[in-house]
Hints:
Structural class: mainly alpha
Number of domains: 2
Distance between the termini: 68 Å
Largest sheet: none
Oligomer: single chain
Shape: flat
Helix content: over 70%
Amino acid sequence: MYERNYELLRSKFSEFFLPTLFTSMAGNICLFVDGLIVSFLIGASNLAPIQIVAPVITFVNLIYWMIGLGGSVLCSVAKAEFDDEKSNSYFSTSIISLLVIGILISIFGLIFSGSITQFLCSSQPELIPEVTS
């Protein structure tokens, strides 16, 4: 009965896909260039401690991305439904959640930094002093 028009969906997908792709690529290129600069300036042996901590940074960023993107989608849907109160509620909840989780991760990291370092450096214990410094 009704014919769907996917032109709007295609145009919006194209509009948002490329910036998202380039942002992701820029983040990965930054890590690569950072590794190159560190290895050239202070030596390849000092690159290992930086790369050992990279999974922790990626995990924390993953949490922030999930909450931030999820909150923005919920906020946008509420805005599209002209429900400003719900939209503001989603936005505030996302921001407060990110702040609380950030504080908890910081406290957890400070308290258990030795255990986290030993876990990450279990295959190369000689790197523990370099990672903690």
